[in-house]
Amino acid sequence: MQFTEQLWQDIQPIYKSILEHGFVKKLTAGSLPSPTFQYYIQQDALYLVDFGRALSQLAARSTQPDDMLQFAQFAQNAILVERALHETYFALYAIEPQTVKMPACFAYTNYLLATTSLQSIAVGAAAVLPCFWIYREVGRFIYQRAIQANPYRAWIDTYAGDAFDQSVTQMLELTDRFAEQAGSAEREMMREAFRMSSRLEWYFWNDAYTLNGWLV
Ligand SMILES: Cc1ncc(C[n+]2csc(CCO)c2C)c(N)n1
């Protein structure tokens, strides 16, 4: 079994909870209240900058030039592709940029930055993988069920598209190669990082769905 297949098996309960989450259900039905989507987009704009930073960190720390190029391209894409998507929605709903990270965004971005900075590149790669992989799977799940006139069509099409599919495949190949070169202790840390980021993906949607803020 490929290492990444094991990663996917590990997160089955988390992935199931994501597919069954009210945010995903309502996004699919096109009935997500606009304040909920606004909260999500505002937090995601903050998330993506740090996500690009985490990928740039992996690029800087790569020992192989090919890996460096790959991570740098992912970082560039995270900013460019996502910025286009965000601009669509910021304009469409007259959304004001937010500067304060809410709890899930705060936890997730700081986790990614700490992991890609302080752990091995293999563990850092496992930490950024759920962002790619879960979005592809959730994107496909929603795409198969969403009606054409869904107001979140641009979002859905981006994540169900071929261009995105390719980067997920590349990221999976990279992770499997790192895992082959890693010892068993490092592979365990990769599994843990993959699981933690997957959990934080759920929290990210849940914060938007509940419009969660800082309690104190
Ligand atoms: C919380 C959160 N997690 C994952 C993504 C998806 N995503 C962001 S950048 C990128 C890679 C290159 O485009 C992907 C897949 C998101 N938008 N927000």
Automatic annotation (TrEMBL):
Residues 8-209 form the Thiaminase-2/PQQC domain. It catalyses: 4-amino-5-aminomethyl-2-methylpyrimidine + H2O = 4-amino-5-hydroxymethyl-2-methylpyrimidine + NH4(+); thiamine + H2O = 5-(2-hydroxyethyl)-4-methylthiazole + 4-amino-5-hydroxymethyl-2-methylpyrimidine + H(+). GO terms for biological process: thiamine biosynthetic process; thiamine diphosphate biosynthetic process. InterPro entries: Haem_Oase-like_multi-hlx (IPR016084), Thiaminase-2/PQQC (IPR004305), Thiaminase_II (IPR027574), Thiamine_Salvage_TenA (IPR050967). Keywords: Hydrolase, Thiamine biosynthesis. Its EC number is 3.5.99.2. The keyword Nucleotidyltransferase does not apply. GO terms for molecular function: thiaminase activity. The keyword Cell division does not apply. GO terms for cellular component: cytosol. It is an enzyme of class 3 (hydrolase). Pathway: Cofactor biosynthesis; thiamine diphosphate biosynthesis. Belongs to the TenA family. NCBIfam families: salvage_TenA. Catalyzes an amino-pyrimidine hydrolysis reaction at the C5' of the pyrimidine moiety of thiamine compounds, a reaction that is part of a thiamine salvage pathway. This is Aminopyrimidine aminohydrolase.
